[in-house]
Write a structure and sequence with these properties.
Blueprint: E1 3-4, H1 9-19, E2 25-27, H2 29-37, H3 41-44, E3 51-54, H4 55-71, E4 76-82, E5 85-91, H5 93-113, E6 115-117, H6 127-137, H7 139-150, E7 154-156, H8 160-170, E8 174-175, H9 177-186, H10 192-204, E9 207-208, H11 214-223, H12 230-236, H13 248-262, H14 273-288, H15 294-305, H16 316-327
Parallel strand pairs: 1-9, 2-3, 2-7, 3-6, 7-8
Antiparallel strand pairs: 4-5
Helix pairs in contact: 4-5, 4-7, 6-7, 9-10, 11-12, 11-13, 13-14, 15-16
Length: 328
Amino acid sequence: MGLTTSSDAQEHFLGSSMLLGTAPIVLDIISLCTIFFIDAHLLISRLPNRLIVAAASVTEINDIISELEKIRPVGSMTLGKVNGAYIRHIRTPEDIHNQIKRFLTLKAWIETNCEILPCESALDMNAHEKTKYDKAIGESFVDSILTARAQEAIFLSEESSLRRLAYQEFGLSGVATFTLLLFMNQQRTISVEEYREATIKLIVMYYRVIPVTSQTLLKIAHTSGYKFNSVIEQAFEGLLSNILPPDKGAEFGAQFIFMVYSAKVDFIIDTNFEEYRRFVCVKCLDTLCRKYISKDLASYLENYFQNPVFAAAAELPAIKRLLKNYFS
């Protein structure tokens, strides 16, 4: 479940190097919705780069608004299947109204902050080939790719599969929003807190395998009172990202476990709090064992917590018991 936005480390670092220049950035429709719904459009507006949107993407937004207007009087109901069970999703007329408002605001932001360009290069493409791509991935995506290539721009696209297609079929390199935000944080265009908040919102939207730090994990876990849930599970996946240096996943996991036991608790604790805390750490270890050999991870964590900085920590005995029970 979720959208796989992270790709390989090579693409990530190539994208970061491209962002060092002043090349324009072409945003596809999913990236537009992403940055807007996580409020990152306010951050990206700080970039010196020209922001470009293919006219077909604006047309698609208009089509979405038109479709929503049709069902606004009565709302809608859809059925989905999650883990074998059918789930009913109801949108009330008020929900639809709020969605329309969001898309209208997105459209206004595009018109104010971006250049909207027709895809003139599509005229030079074989008509049969253009139709084939339009049917396969959608006209707005094809036009965004062609526009980015014509403008010698960076292609901002969330789906790793779409960026891969753009590179393999059109020789176009691209980045995902999390790469752009990380670059902006490294360049101090946005603060660490702004980057962390945006990253958490991406994870909440089930954007998969986004690299995380221990502080990001703690903030997500703290929000739920350390009760393990699907968002925390999604966040732990970030420890497996191949964008992180080899041992960073284990280091961030160790830091997270220590912070779970040592962080100040500013919410009402129920009788199951200790079990919640223990279980969320166990699930973190489960995730790390998918990346590291179990005995190697156990050895790394043992050495990590032997650091003199932890010697006086009151939480250390509980952490050692947790690790002993887990790896025994």
